[in-house]
Amino acid sequence: MLRLSRISPLQVISVKRTPPVLLQTYRHYATDIEDLKKQSDSTETDNSVSATGVIDKRSNEVLLYYSFATSRNFVKSYLSRLALFAPRYSDEQVKKRVEQLSSPLPQGSLLTEVVALARDSGAFVKYQFPQDETAKQFITQIRNNVAVNEKESENVVSRVFDYITDRAPKVYSVKGVPWIEDLKRFPSPKLAVKFEGDPLTEEELYVLFRRYGLIDDIKADPNESIVLFHNIRAATCAKHCITGMSLNNGNTTIHIQFAPIKRKNYLVDFISNHTKIAIPILLALLAGFAVMVFDPIREWCIEYKITHSRHSFDYFKQNKAFQLLYIPYRALANLVSSSYDYIDTQIHEVVGDKDCDTSDSQSMDEIKKESNMFWQERFEKSKQLKLWILENLNSFIIVKGPQGSGKEEFVLDHTLASDDRLNSKVLVIECDKLSKARSENTLIGSTASQLGYFPVFTWTNSISQFVDLGVQGLTGQKSGFSESKETQIKNMFSLATQSIRHICESDYQKYAKSVDRKNKRLKDEDKIEILRQEDFLAQHPESKPIIVINKFSRRADVHSNDFIYPLIAEWASGLIQNNIAHVIFLTADVGSVQHLNEALPNQVFKDLSLSDASMMSSKQYVCDVLNVKGTSTLSECLEPLGGRMLDLQAFIRRVKSGEDPSNAVTEMITQAAELITTFFLSSQKIDNGDNNWNSAQVWLIMKLLSKKEVISYDDLIKSPLFKSSKQTMDTLSTLEKFDLISLKRDKGVLNKITTGRPLFKAAFSNIIGDLRIWKLYETDYLTNLINLEVGKINKLESELSGIYKIGNRLDGRIDYLSKKIEASNKKIVDYEKEIADIASYNGDSKSHSFLGIF
């Protein structure tokens, strides 16, 4: 009788069949099957097993199940879903295997059908047995044949291996109605047994299932019993042979399905029950795993950035093994392309390409002149810098010079690049790109770019903050998973230190191996002693990388990044103390040396100062690049520019673009004047709050420097605007940082003040010569002086009122304060008179009273 299973959620069709020994029930079942077939197959052409999932069997036929697989066939069952791991044996191959194992068949028997089950590593085989034999006798003979044929086909070792691993083929009689399906239900040692009718007891289940293999556990239940086999193979055989079997005169029908084993995950339980301990441990393991995987990659990337020339194509071209392949290829390529040379040459000559060649040669000459003529004055300093590096004694070098003086070109292009021993291992760090970063992710990305630190995952910062917040809410304490940007930047520089040390060690290992190879060819008394790594690096300065830290400063452009400069100074000091690198600082900020003094308090720095070129060299440089002769007009144009290379190159670009030299200089002076008035004389604030000056102070300095080349610090502090020495030093240092002025020191003490850029001197005169601007800022200057005198008078009057209140007659003190008040009052009157004169001045005859400041 065909029924819908009441238990299965998928309403799987189950077939109930009575064993052959119960003839009455079997006839009832056969009648139901025949009725079903007639109803369902009446309009169908394909009624095979693959279409219906049911194997038909007549009264003189027997159905057996052959099991070929091991107890670990669940791996194959999952991989069989993929095309790459499809079953290797077809139905015909399985049929030959069955015939080989089951032969010889009894007289009059016939193998009628084979249904292979690739997922379960088995097959259903249907036989037609002789009329003079019973089904039981036929099945017994088949089993005996399988056992004998298996032993004959294998040696003793294979039979022992099959017995231990349970790989020998087995044959079972199918007692129920097998349901052949290809659903995504994979084999499992756990079987779910459902009963249609009266349930079976635990003992009855054991008797029914034990013949297929060892049973670990049985749980009997009226609704659904569980039978747990020791291995999957036994469960697979039991499921195919018993499902659909009817017992107790048709009152009980068994339906079997594979049940997934619910295993207890102790790790998940531990995490869920001990979150305060487990989550920090997991995060630590995750971080450790990330370090193990990514840090070696990052270290290699940093090494590649430092030793870029060693990994370049030109470096590998020197390899002998590479030349064996490259030279024949290059010769063949030249042979193929040589036929086009004559044609190309003729075409170029026809179209007049000689002019282009001439211009190209001229441009190359210009580059050579630019790279040679301008640096002749610094040739000795370049030799000194190389000597300091090759001496290899505490090579902590500071190259100072104003902005635009060509410090970077001097060090990289004209000192290191010209020496093959020094240009192979160079790392340049641009500090300004780090100090200008306005977000944490931008700062980390810029640092990674400067160091060659790759890969870097800036997006993890945002995620780690949320994770840390979630862990804190869950456990009550922070996990420490999210790090501050200071810690992250410090870790990146620490990894860079490891990379630099590894570079030194690799060179030392090459040296040690070469000495070992040489010692093998020498006698014992002639063998060379291998130096220690410290001694090797002391004798081979070229083995140590050169770290060039450009645009090192006292403060960052963004206030939150001020930690960068002390961190870099500390990192560089560690490299010097460990003797694994040469460090060169390029700075235009004299105050930045304070960071270096704090990082290496007992170190004597090697200092190299770069100044502007002389007028003769500047004029010669411009004439050579422009390919013109020096004239008086050109000399007059170059005089405001001085020897600052930044301004000279800007002037050359303007002239090359077709601008008249006089107009070019005039326009540059106008732009510089606009920069000064906008940045230094206006009241706008800088983002980092570093503008601790006022317009009156800048105006006073401009007036003095427009008339003199140098002003004395002692003369400057005589002005009421520069009375406080600490505030004055802070103001002057800030103005020097922004290149408005340059401070000259004698034995570390500020002595003289000059213009920061030579062009600014002409800009000062341009600003002061503008009547409208002069009136505006001269009035503001005098107003500031008046305010200072008013403040002084208020303080003096407060002291006088205090003296009168106590009633103590201090005639001497009163006379002193009165004279001070009178002097200040007189100054206020004079200042106000000057302001009135400025307001009424129309440009006919400018008064020079404003220069009589002190």
From TrEMBL:
Pfam families: RNA12. Residues 378-806 form the Mitochondrial escape protein 2 C-terminal domain. It is found in: Mitochondrion inner membrane. The keyword Cell membrane does not apply. Transmembrane segments: none annotated. One of its GO terms (cellular component) is mitochondrial inner membrane. One of its GO terms (molecular function) is RNA binding. GO terms for biological process: mRNA processing. Keywords: Membrane, Mitochondrion, Mitochondrion inner membrane, mRNA processing, RNA-binding, Transmembrane, Transmembrane helix. InterPro entries: Mt_escape_2_C (IPR018850), RBD_domain_sf (IPR035979), Yme2_C (IPR039627), Yme2_RRM (IPR034260). The keyword Membrane applies. Its main location: mitochondrion. It is a single-pass membrane protein. Belongs to the YME2 family. PANTHER family: MITOCHONDRIAL ESCAPE PROTEIN 2 (PTHR32198). Plays a role in maintaining the mitochondrial genome and in controlling the mtDNA escape. Involved in the regulation of mtDNA nucleotide structure and number. May have a dispensable role in early maturation of pre-rRNA. This is Mitochondrial escape protein 2. It comes from Candida theae.
